[in-house]
Specification:
- By secondary structure, this protein is an alpha/beta fold.
- The protein has a single domain, classed as Alpha-Beta Barrel (TIM Barrel).
- The protein contains eleven helices and eight strands.
- The protein binds 1,3-dihydroxyacetonephosphate.
- The site of 1,3-dihydroxyacetonephosphate has 14 residues, from β8.
Length: 261
């Protein structure tokens, strides 16, 4: 059995300018240091807006903080006439380890379909970034098709083009749970995360499926995170709203210490 290091990822979305991002990362570091958090047991990553990444990189590298960081999106292209877009090459040069692709807010607000998400995934891998591929069903999808069908088909679109042995992270984020305060139940999350892992096994083999981290996202808080992480196929959390409250995010990171009733 492969040991998958849990990943707690904070997607800041469009919050914090670069000055606030510096203060946030420093405070998170002090809070976790005081709590004697072990980076070896839980990986922590933050996803600031593009304009903050250089500042976050500088704090993390100069203070030798044990956080990873990444971007919330990237262009499928390397360079050229793509006004407003950011290349994976630039993100890699800034030391990003991860990049989020296919977040439901990109799929909805920027009309990104499965083919765009697949192209972005390949662009991330090409530049040595680990893509966090987001999938998830809307309320309507849930009623029509149940919980796993849409997320699995979104992931299959990526798997269809994914080179074998690629390191990716998958994030199951039901659209109805994002920002709603209504998280999925741990059992619902487990079922879909297991189905996503099974899809990876089908196309890329049992070893990659066993090594790939599958996260849950959608109204994750310090009060529910441990119940998700207790599930065998949930390897971490992609946190939105609660990731921009430093005390709350630090508590989420320390989920192994939580006692579940
Ligand atoms: P919330 O945690 O605010 O529900 O957002 C989840 C999310 O979209 C993370 O990417």
């Amino acid at each position: 059995m492969v040991d998958r290091r849990p990943l707690i990822a904070g997607n800041w979305k469009m919050n914090f300018d670069h000055l606030r991002s510096i203060a946030f990362v420093q405070k998170l570091a002090w809070t976790l240091k005081d709590a004697k958090h072990s980076a070896a047991s839980v990986e922590v990553a933050v996803f600031p807006p593009f304009t903050d990444i250089r500042s976050v990189q500088t704090v993390i590298e100069s203070d030798r903080l044990e956080f990873a960081f990444g971007a919330q999106d990237l262009s499928p292209f390397d360079s050229g006439a793509h006004t407003g877009d950011i290349s994976g090459e630039f993100l890699a040069k800034l030391g990003c380890r991860f990049v989020i692709v296919g977040h439901s807010e990109r799929r909805q607000n920027h009309h990104e379909d499965d083919s765009v998400v697949s192209a972005k995934t390949l662009a991330a891998l090409k530049h040595g970034l680990i893509p966090i591929v987001c999938v998830g069903e809307t309320n309507e999808d849930l009623e029509k098709f149940g919980s796993s069908a849409v997320p699995v088909s979104q992931l299959r679109a990526v798997l269809d083009v994914l080179p074998k042995d690629s390191e990716i992270v998958v994030a199951y984020e039901p659209v109805w749970a994002i920002g709603s305060g209504q998280a999925a139940t741990p059992l619902q999350a487990q079922e879909v995360c297991a189905a996503l892992r099974a899809a990876i096994a089908e196309t890329h083999g049992a070893d990659l499926a066993a090594a790939t981290r599958v996260l849950y996202g959608g109204s994750v808080k310090s009060t529910n995170v441990a119940s998700f992480l207790r599930e065998p196929d949930v390897d971490g959390a992609l946190v939105g709203g609660a990731s921009i409250d430093v005390d709350e995010f630090a508590k989420i990171v320390q989920f192994p210490k939580h006692v579940i009733a």
